[in-house]
Amino acid sequence: MALVVQKYGGTSVADPERIQAVARKVVERRRKGDSLVVVLSARAGETDRLLALGHDVSPEPNPRELDVLLATGEQVTIALFSMAVHDMGEEAVSMTGYQAGIITDRAYGQARINWIETLPIVGKLHEGKIVVVAGFQGYDDEGNITTLGRGGSDTTAVALAAALGADVCEIYTDVEGVYTADPNVCSKARKLDRISYEEMLEMASMGAKVLHLRSVEFGMKYHVPILVLSSFTDAPGTLVTKEDEEMEKVVVSGITYNKNEGRVTITNVPDIPGMAAKVFRPISDSGINVDLIVQGSSGTPGRANISFTVPKTDFARTMRIVERIAPEIDAGPVHGNADIAKISIIGLGMRSHSGVATKMFETLARENINLKMISTSEIKISCIIDEKYTELAVRVLHDAFELDRAPLGRIQIQEES
Amino acid sequence: MALVVQKYGGTSVADPERIQAVARKVVERRRKGDSLVVVLSARAGETDRLLALGHDVSPEPNPRELDVLLATGEQVTIALFSMAVHDMGEEAVSMTGYQAGIITDRAYGQARINWIETLPIVGKLHEGKIVVVAGFQGYDDEGNITTLGRGGSDTTAVALAAALGADVCEIYTDVEGVYTADPNVCSKARKLDRISYEEMLEMASMGAKVLHLRSVEFGMKYHVPILVLSSFTDAPGTLVTKEDEEMEKVVVSGITYNKNEGRVTITNVPDIPGMAAKVFRPISDSGINVDLIVQGSSGTPGRANISFTVPKTDFARTMRIVERIAPEIDAGPVHGNADIAKISIIGLGMRSHSGVATKMFETLARENINLKMISTSEIKISCIIDEKYTELAVRVLHDAFELDRAPLGRIQIQEES
User: Fold this and answer.
1) Which of A52, A105, A95, A54 has its CA nearest to residue B75?
2) How close, in Å, is residue A21 to chain B by CA atoms?
3) Chain B environment of A16 (Cβ under 8 Å)
4) Contact yes or no for A180/A404 (Cβ under 8 A)
5) Is A63 exposed, middle or buried (0-12, 13-18, 19+ CB in 10 A)?
6) The dihedral sign for the CA sequence A81, A86, A87, A90
7) b/e for A227-239, b at 16 or more Cβ within 10 A?
8) What are the pLDDT digits (tens) for B238-287?
């Protein structure tokens, strides 16, 4: 008898048939003896429909009222799902963010969970009921409805699992788990049995859309084991958990790519204190998120080149800002390139293994793929390359690091558990 | 500076354009200095859409969850409306039934308001905000979402007006007020300036669909003046208020008809105690609402005929029940007729004026309209006639009681106020 928090995304509850299918899975699980809290997203497309409705009425919807509007999407799903469970002979009780005691700050549209009053849910679990919670929403200390932003239902589920001391948080999605690389790009991509929170964070922020970033942070902070698995098959999934010795033996766990950025370079920036601040202040003031930043020598003494990447949607705006700044700070010409991709390799074992970066560079060089920027962290190496080489780069790196072969250590852990 | 509760129905907020039009009216009113609480229904068709969605998932939706589902309809409207008000430069704050402190019993789908915690609304009014409340919904003492049943938004508005001590509750609808008769049937029908709660109750229960029955009861109990008016024109509307001397001078205020009933007659029922109970117990146990009941002599000593009316949708079922009972209680044959209509005249003045019933009977007799049943109350006389004479009956009674002429007393009151 375990306490399990499950989360099902929008595609898993898109229509009556799927809602009934998921309800059947949940009811079977309940009958095996587990206590269940089920977190649901809005039906696929519903949040976009509500957003469009809001924009039909108001060009710039009031943020508080937009959250009131969007929160109805999950409320519809939890009601429909609970009906389906009742029809199958089990007791379910739906709870909105308010009813489930999910208290957030007041950052409408991107609120953060401050704490959870667990008594309402615990009470219903003790009555043997399946508790069905609206994901993505909460309320602030004055009772205003808030939403957590896109992907917020993952965060709701992991936060509930932490607050309730659940044995595991199961995130059901439309893929079977976390892969060594995008299976659409790399046919040899292999599903991972386990991955550490740290690696998953780098994966998530690098463009693997399996799990929402903040939910992984929550899981890491409160030690919640997160199991990512498919709502359409019975495959075992990937467990996101804290690192152990076996994991550190693996040098590279996965490869990710991101085609959604553009690169900007300012040449010949005077190499004196305060220059970087002068460049990036107007960019961040415009609400543009800068990702990689690399500063290097320009060849001219006392001058440096600064390169950085921004989301492609902000690329043109960023170029205009930087072209205005460059003469003001006595820098040289500005170059921009939106046809780039970021390739990253991620692995806990990099900390203790040398030569990983060299192997990555050599592998790409062998295919004549030029590196435009390099950026490294403790467990990640990212390279900016021409966009057209993205798929090739993923495949050759996957082969070079032998990611198609399951590491022996992991398999043993799997068998032991 | 008055405190005004306004209610707008589903057709008044059916699409973005209408929402903006109503918002404009509300903003103009606010700028004249009134404090405003605006109660909104779900957009026209939305509740039916949600009901269909529920029935797609479950043949017999769990009542608690159905209310969770239906409550989203009004939540969408209050969010959209508040956005529109913000765009016009005034502050609005939406409140669900929960946030507005509307506490009901737990009769899902037909909950009754027990009390209202007015502090949340009063606080926002003091801040100068327009408070926008979701009609039709509340919550019980355990925090479960409840709905008040069809037409419940009228009740929300009048109950809020009572709890807040509002100066008036304005019900905006798609007609300009309460008429002496259905204008579609009687071209001479005249809009009433004022009508008493008692008369309005008889009108509402007789089939005038302007105002929900329970909202009138609430208004009468707590002395809330209710103004019924059009959301599409600036016509002055009809004030529903407590009776005064002027009102009592008017013998007949209005004529209503109802074609949605069928009549059942059991002949030769033994005239001994307990017979009526034996007839009506199985009918009420089947959830069928009996309207008029008339018991009269059968011509045979010690025997009586019992006639009554039920909704047409329950007519066939009622006939089966009664045909089963009749032999059991040693009664004679059972007759039924679904092609009937009920014509009623209503007026406070009937109490003090004699001969009103006679005038009604004579007027109908003059047109060869046969009376199949007669039922009277203090301020109402109802006759059951052949359905095909309905429109004719309404018109000749309207003429006979001179309802097209505004009573002098009322016009004077109107000018004085």
Assistant:
1) A54
2) 11
3) 53, 56-57
4) yes
5) middle
6) positive
7) bbbbbbeeeebbb
8) 999 998 888 878 889 999 999 999 999 999 999 888 888 888 999 988 88
Phi, psi of B381 (to 5 degrees): -130, 125
Query: B344 Cβ partners below 8 Å, 6+ apart?
Result: B202, B206, B255, B256, B257, B258, B380, B381, B382, B383
pLDDT for the residue numbered B416? 32
Beta strands in A73-144, from DSSP E residues, in sequence order: 92-95, 102-104, 113-116, 130-134, 137-139
pLDDT single digits (tens) A129-161: 999 999 999 999 999 999 998 779 999 999 999
pLDDT of residue B411: 37
Give the best residue of A38, A72, A90, A93 to mutate against chain B (max B CB count within 10 A). A72
Which of B69, B106, B129, B141 should we substitute to test contact with A (largest number of A Cβ atoms within 10 Å)? B69
First to last CA, chain B: 17
Query: In sequence order, what are the beta bridge partners of B303?
Result: B270
Which residues of chain A neighbour B72 with C-beta distances below 8 Å? 72, 75-76, 79
Running DSSP on this structure, what letter comes out for residue B105?
-
Q: At residue A15, does pLDDT exceed 90?
A: yes
- Domains of chain B, each with CATH number or no CATH: 3-242 (3.40.1160.10)
**H helical segments located in A243-299:** 245-248, 275-285
Residue A287: predicted pLDDT: 85
The two three-digit tokens of residue B146, written as one number: 């409840």
Query: Hunting for tokens 């219903």 — which residue is that?
Result: A124
Element (H, E) at B162: helix B152-164
In chain B, DSSP finds a helix count (H) and a strand count (E) of 13, 20
Distance CA B91, CA B249 (A): 46
Q: Is A12 in contact with A22 (CB distance < 8 Å)? A: yes
Q: Is the pLDDT at B1 greater than 90, yes or no?
A: no
Q: How far apart are CA A12 and CA A409, in angstroms?
A: 34
Question: Is the pLDDT assigned to residue A277 strictly greater than 50?
Answer: yes
Residues of A in contact with B66 (CB under 8 A): 79, 83
Q: Give, in degrees to the nearest 5, the angle at Cα B164 between B159 and B167.
A: 95
CB of B145 less than 8 A from some CB of A: yes
Q: Which of residues 87-116 of B touch A (CB under 8 A)?
A: 87, 92-94, 96, 98-99
Partner-chain residue, chosen from A56, A65, A82, that has the shortest CB–CB distance to B16: A56
ipTM: 0.81
| Residue of B168, B180, B147, B146 whose CA lies nearest to B36 | B168
**Residue from B82, B85, B147 to probe the interface with A (highest A Cβ count within 10 Å):** B82
Instruction: Judge if pTM exceeds 0.80.
Output: yes
Q: For chain A, what's the residue count?
A: 417
Amino acid, single-letter form, for residue A245: E
Using the beta-carbon criterion (under 8 Å), do A75 and B93 form an inter-chain contact?
no
* Contact present, A291 and A261 (Cβ < 8 Å): yes
CB contact under 8 A, B69 and A53: no
> What integer pLDDT is reported at residue B137 of this predicted model?
97
Whole-number pLDDT of residue A207: 54
